[in-house]
Each structure stands twice: as C-alpha cells, then as structure tokens.
Amino acid sequence: MKKNASGINNSKQRIENKNNDLDLYLKALNSAYSGIIITDNLQYDNPIIYCNKAFETISGYAHDEIIGHNCRFLQAQDRSQAERKIIKEAIERGEECKIEIRNYRKDGTLFWNELFISPVKNEEGQVTHFIGVQNDISDRKKAEHDLREEKSHVELKIQQRTKELQDKESFLSSIIETVRESLLVLDANYIVLSANRHFLNSFKVTTEETVGKLLFDLGNQQWDISSLKEMLTQILPTNNPVIDYEVDHIFPHIGRKVMLLNAYRVEFEGQYKDRILIAIEDITEKKEQDRRKDDFLSIASHELKTPLTTIKGLFQILQRLSAENTDPKYVSTLDKITAYIDRLNLLISKLLDTSKIQSGNLELHMEPFEIDKTIQDAVESMRLAAPDSDIHLTGNTGSIVEGDELQIIQVLNNLLSNAIKYSPESKKVEVSIHKVANFVKISVRDYGMGISYQDRQKIFERFFRVSHIQKKFPGLGIGLYVSHEIILHHKGTLWVESEPGEGSTFNFTLPILINK
C-alpha cells in the first residue's frame, strides 16, 4: 500500500512539474520581444491557435481578433507579393522558410515583417502545426531606403521641392481658405498657428480669440476633452494620426455639435517642422438625420407588424376553410400570398433588429447550448427549405457556448441564404465547424461570384449593397449588418474571405463555455 501511495504521489508530482513547465513556457513566450504564433496545420486553412503579447503589439490586433484567422490577413489588399507564394509552397512541403514581407497593422499602417516559419511534426512525421516568429524590421527597411535615396540624390530633390512649397505658402493658404471644412494648424506645443475662415464662422470666434492660443483653452476650455487631448499629444512622438474621432460637445453660442476629427503630423524642413493639421467635419445634421431615419424605421416596422400578423391569420383561416373541391388555382394563390406575407414579415423583423441595434436595445437571452447540434439543426432546416442546394456539413467540436441560440441560428440562416442566393451557377455550399483555441469557428463557403476588396471593407455596414448586384438580386443590405452586430454582442468576430470569381467564405467565432 505504501508503494502504491508513493507511486501516486510521484505521478502527481510529475503532472505538477509539467504544468509548472507549461506555465513557464507560456510566460517565456509572452515575454519574448518577437511576435510568436502557432497555427494548426490539421485544420482547414491552417488557422492561428496561439499568439503571444508581442504579436498583438506588432500587429495592433487584439487576441480575439487574431485567433481563427489565417496569417495572410496581415497583408490586407497587398496580395501580389512574391513572398506569399514562398510561404504557401513551404507550408505545402512542410518545410521551414525565412522571408521579409509587407504587413499592415489594424489601423492600416505598413510595417515590414521578418518572418521565420518552422513546421512541428508528430512521431509519425506528419506536420501538425507551424510556428511563426516575427520581427518588425520597419526601421531597418527605412534605413536601407534612406540610403538608396541618398545615393540617387533624392535628398536634393526633396529640398528643392520643399523650397517650392515654402515659396507658394500664400497660394496654399488661399486654397485652404476655400475648403468647406474647418482646419487648424498647431505647433509642437499645441498652440494654434492658423485657423481657416470656415472654422471661425462655424464656431463663431475671431482670429484674435483663436490664433496664438492653446487648443485646449479655446472657447473657455471647451476643447479640453481628455480622450482627444491624449490622442493629440501622441501624434508627434508616435507619428500615428487621429482618424475619424467623434466629438459630441456643447459649445457656447452655437449649442451642440457632433464632429469628426482627423489629425495628422505635417513635417517640412526648417520653420515648418513638427506641425499638426486638424480637419473638423461637422456631422451634426447627418447624425440627426440618421436618428430620424432610425426612429422612422422603428415606428414603421412596429406599425406594419400588427396588421401583417392579422392579415396572415385571416389567410390561414381561408386556407383551412377551403373545401376539397376548391379550384386548385385558388388554393395556389392563397399559398403564394402566404409566402409573400412571410417574406414581408421577415423583412420587417430585420428592420426591427436594425432599429434595436442602433438604439442599443438588442435583447439577448444568454443560455448555454450545444453549438454542434444547433448548427446541424439549422443546416438540416435549410436543406428542407432549399432542396435544390447541395449543402455539406463537416466538423464537430463537442463544445457548449453561452448565447442566444435563436440569434445564432438567425446568423447562420442569413449566411446560408446569401451563399445560395449569390451562387446561381453553383448549388454547392460547404459549412464547417471547428474548435480553434478557446473559440468555436463556423465557416460558410460558397462557389459564387465573390466579392472585391473594396466591397469587403464595407459589406458589414448598414444598408450597404455591392453595386453590380443591386438590380439582379433584391434586398436592403441589412442581413450581414445584423449578423455582424449579433456576433459582436456574443464577444465573437464575423469576417469574410473572398476574391471576385472565386466564391466567398464567411467565418464567425464564439467563445467556448464548456469543453466536453
């Protein structure tokens, strides 16, 4: 008995040692200066299943926005790089490789990435994972570029061009005065050097009250907004612009203003070094129009819902009262009317969802449920509703997630409906479900017309529809918007991967509550 107890204690000690070792390895990886990721080569599209803190810092993306994606998302639209082919071939051969490639942070800024990729093999020699080690070499690339520029006398050309711009200062100033947008120029200490006429007229101030004053002291310190101040004070040290920062403020004499601020560092040699240009767009009226439109949608949807429900009930009564010898054309007409009522009812429900999202009143009934079964049931229902389509389902996670099951079904139904609708030449749709780190990833792939890069950037916006399909395929452009917001409220992400003519894959993730 003592020997058995001793053996158990030794096993516990070994397990504890392994756990301690694992914690140490994870701490070491998170302490590394280099960005480190691990991808699962056994899963579809080789998704990222781990990233350390340095990778989040380098890329600008949060952990939850990285997990489940393929590494190529870092190249954004810059997809013609020869290095992408080198990576692809190395992964296909299960070999390591080292490249330098252009990547883009979440805010769109370019950085050069020195990437080392190494395969991880199991005991049978099968490549199960890849480890990627990434270093930001933008400074080195810039130094190399500057050296080439210097050798080709570009420095001299820059000086000549700068002098030309300085000589035309008065001409440029006159152009600025005609811009129908408020513009401010600040020095390195955030003192206003100039304000165009549009700014003075919009905010009912004079040049004497503005020029030479600290920005944050203008208008009885009305511009002393802590979040704005924090961002502006980071422009010169980091060279990161402030883009579309919304300010909702009440100003003396002019009342409430809603503005979009864009601020950039403007640097010339000599007396124009380290300047900040601030462009202010007044969107007060646009916001008010959006609010009125949302109110109209909400009221109209509610008002339409009640009579439509009554009409549907009356038609159901007519259907039940139809005798056996009733004219088939009459019965068919009733069925068609009921189908159109259902379509209209679905459209109104989507409008109501949009209104609730905009007003922040989207209701979620969060409960644990088996995601595999939910996906299977939704796919089976869609097969019955669209018998001509060839819908395949693969994967199994054995996971329980917490969320509003009906809302998740709505998202999947919308993605499946779109896959069928926008693939008139191909009826094949592939649905897959996988476990990726502590998330469940669901993918819906079609073989239809695909989506351009420009349209992919806006496809989840409210009421956006791809221009060349508006006439061919009816719709309001709210399904993907509602789906995106539902997944966002579930602390997941929804994204699309697509190329024109090659179909589309819509993916979304949900956090795992329990692993069986």
Automatic annotation (TrEMBL):
Record GO terms (molecular function): phosphorelay response regulator activity; phosphorelay sensor kinase activity; protein kinase activator activity
Record carries keyword Nuclease: no
InterPro entries assigned: BphY/WalK/GraS-like (IPR050351), HATPase_C_sf (IPR036890), HATPase_dom (IPR003594), His_kinase_dom (IPR005467), HisK_dim/P_dom (IPR003661), HisK_dim/P_sf (IPR036097), PAC (IPR001610), PAS (IPR000014)
Domain PAC: 97-149
Compartments reported by the entry: Membrane
Domain of life: Bacteria
Domain PAS: 21-94, 168-239
The EC number(s) this enzyme carries: 2.7.13.3
Any GO CC annotation of this UniProt entry: membrane
Membrane topology field: Multi-pass membrane protein
Top EC class, one word: transferase
Record key words, sorted: ATP-binding, Kinase, Membrane, Nucleotide-binding, Phosphoprotein, Transferase, Transmembrane, Transmembrane helix, Two-component regulatory system
BP GO annotations: osmosensory signaling via phosphorelay pathway
SMART domains reported for this sequence: HATPase_c (SM00387), HisKA (SM00388), PAC (SM00086), PAS (SM00091)
CDD domains, alphabetized: HisKA (cd00082), PAS (cd00130)
Record domain Histidine kinase: where: 299-514
Catalytic activity: ATP + protein L-histidine = ADP + protein N-phospho-L-histidine
A Pfam family annotated for this UniProt entry: PAS_4
Protein name: histidine kinase
